[in-house]
From TrEMBL:
The keyword Nucleus does not apply. This is Hydroxyacid dehydrogenase. It comes from the Bacteria. Its cofactor is FAD. GO terms for molecular function: catalytic activity; FAD binding. It holds the Pfam family FAD_binding_4.
């Protein structure tokens, strides 16, 4: 690839070791993790400081050069993949991966956007603190991507989404100005909360370069139970009981169907079925506390005994060792990889009022089967916060391109039903390219207008992550 005149200006501004222009160097940055999208770029920039980011964005705005921020490339909606423009510049903060401070009195951690989430969890753990954000991609996802998409994960029931863990951010605006909002205050009631505009904006308003995060007391005592349920309705009733009896100790309440377990058993070696017989659905619940493992175990066993007596689950097994905890979680966490091994499929990351989930699952399946009677549903998710991964695979024996040919009609049925129940078409994965058109359909005209006006204030030249979100 020939170095463009603009790429040379980038080199002059931040150094040749931070700007990559050869075809071989740029190619790995042009596609998403799922291989659904592929774009173009004249350069990849990997700055080492916030000041470098400021120089990059100022140059890009002055020439109307589009910028595509990219984290760990674990997103599922194509939000970090450039479009077809040859002028794109991909911006990675992977070299900005320092922990700037950790305060065990205020219980805060200030880290740069290129930090790997798992590394930040470990840093907090080493200081006898907990960073509760946890998701399947934590070994490779970066903090900046978590912030840009307002990532969810398995602990939302107890700790909330990413935005609930953020006290302040440092960000670079498209014109190169640095917004220094890295305050660690728990209370700052002084007008508009600008950080919350940037969190979840998918890189369309600016680039978050660092964040101040809340830490919590560690919860080393963990108990996990897998319960077999006959229906989503039974899972809902079990959730109500556990929430009432276990309160804030409950940090995860996951649901997955029997089909999901079948798929994991078929594609993931070393995973065992939780019970001797197959069940229509399963619930995985984790309780965690700061101390007294015996008391936590006794609480969970008492509640599960009550659930069985009230016919709120058909069977249950409670973990007795850390190894069993990890084994139980593996059954849930490997569902996505098992479906990936099974072949192309439709992903629907939706959220619903929790009480509506059972009725939604029944009505949505009826709608989908009217369009495609033999489709295979694999439904799982964070039931306790209303988030379902309503995933569908092609009928057995169909060609791999089946969903490419029929997916749009099926998705329309699913998302129309989500809207009917007052839900959201994106619970935790964002909009990106994948859901942009659906976003325009299901958001109200007023919300869309306000978002466009906010975009125009932050990014009047329209250089930030074009083709995403709006």
């Amino acid at each position: 690839m020939t170095i463009t005149a603009f790429a040379q200006r980038l080199i002059d501004a931040i150094g040749a070791d931070s700007v990559f222009t050869s075809t071989e160097d740029v190619a790995p940055w042009l596609t998403d993790w799922r291989g659904m999208y592929r774009g173009h770029a004249q350069a990849v920039v990997r700055p080492r400081s916030t000041q470098d980011v400021a120089k990059i964005l100022a140059l890009c705005q002055s020439t109307a050069t589009p910028v595509v921020p990219r984290g760990g490339n674990t997103g599922l909606c194509g939000g970090a993949t450039p479009d077809k423009s040859e002028q794109n510049v991909v911006l990675s903060l992977d070299r900005m991966n320092a922990v700037r401070s950790l305060d065990t009195i205020a219980n805060t951690l200030v880290a740069e956007a290129g930090c790997i989430l798992e590394d930040l969890q470990r840093t907090a753990h080493d200081a006898n603190r907990l960073l509760p954000l946890s998701l399947a991609a934590e070994g490779s996802c970066q903090l900046g991507g978590n912030l840009a998409t307002n990532a969810g994960g398995v602990n939302v029931v107890r700790y909330g989404m990413t935005r609930d863990l953020v006290l302040g951010v440092e960000a670079v605006l498209p014109n190169g100005e640095i917004l220094d909002g890295l305050r660690t205050l728990r209370k700052d009631n002084t007008g508009y909360d600008l950080k919350q505009l940037l969190i979840g904006s998918e890189g369309t308003l600016g680039v978050i370069t660092a964040a101040a995060l809340r830490l919590y007391a560690p919860t080393p005592v963990r108990q996990v139970v897998i319960a077999a349920v006959t229906s989503p309705r039974q899972a809902l009733e079990l959730y109500e009981l556990l929430f009432a009896e276990c309160g804030p100790r409950m940090q995860a309440f996951e649901f997955f169907t029997g089909e999901c377990v079948d798929l994991v058993m078929a594609h993931v070696p070393g995973v065992r079925a939780p019970f001797g017989e197959r069940h229509p659905g399963y619930v995985l619940v984790e309780l965690a506390d700061t101390a007294d493992e015996q008391a936590l175990g006794a609480l969970l066993e008492r509640v599960i005994e009550a659930a069985i007596e009230r016919d709120l689950c058909a069977d249950a097994v409670v973990s007795s060792t850390l190894g069993q905890v990890e084994e139980m979680w593996k059954l849930r966490e490997e569902i996505s990889e098992a479906q990936r091994a099974d072949g192309p499929h439709l992903k629907h990351d939706v959220s619903l009022p929790i009480e509506s989930i059972p009725e939604f699952m029944t009505s949505a399946e009826a709608r989908v089967r009217r369009v495609c009677p033999q489709v295979r549903p694999f439904i799982f998710g964070h039931f306790g916060d209303g988030n379902l991964h309503y995933n569908l695979s092609r009928p057995a024996g169909e060609a791999a391109d089946f969903m490419a040919r029929h997916g749009e009609a099926i998705t329309a049925e699913v998302l129309d039903e989500v809207a009917r129940f007052g839900g959201s078409i994106s619970a935790e994965h964002g909009i990106g390219q994948l859901k942009r058109d659906y976003f325009a359909k299901y958001k109200s005209p007023l919300e869309l207008r306000l978002m466009r006006e906010i975009k125009a204030v932050f990014d009047p030249a329209g250089i930030m992550n074009p083709g995403k979100l709006l």
